[in-house]
Specification:
This protein has about 120 residues and is mainly alpha-helical. The chain is about 55% helix and about 0% strand.
Length: about 120
Amino acid sequence: MRWNMMILASCLATAGCVGNSMSERQDANIESSLQYDTVPCDQLLAQRNGLAQQYNLPTTAKPTFSNPAMGFGPFTPDMRSKAQRDSDKASGEIDAMNRSIERRDCGKPDKQKKFALPG
């Protein structure tokens, strides 16, 4: 009976960490770039640059991941400060914006103008 209670207590403690784990929160920083495809290029570039400046990040920021001990990622509690979590989230947003910018060739001369006939 005593062992059963110890096992139950350890399972409950472990289950409590899963929703707040480091790997789970870092995965949440990855964003889809498709949401930015409807934003005009000049506005998106300004938004990305502003976010990078706000968090003192380069405009080429990418999300980072810690390397927890093998197999313990879902059980490692997130010990980062709120400022660090916010900065990591901004890195994910900047990366998503950059993928949209690159896919749509924002900031580059319009390709259609190169092939237009003189008027």
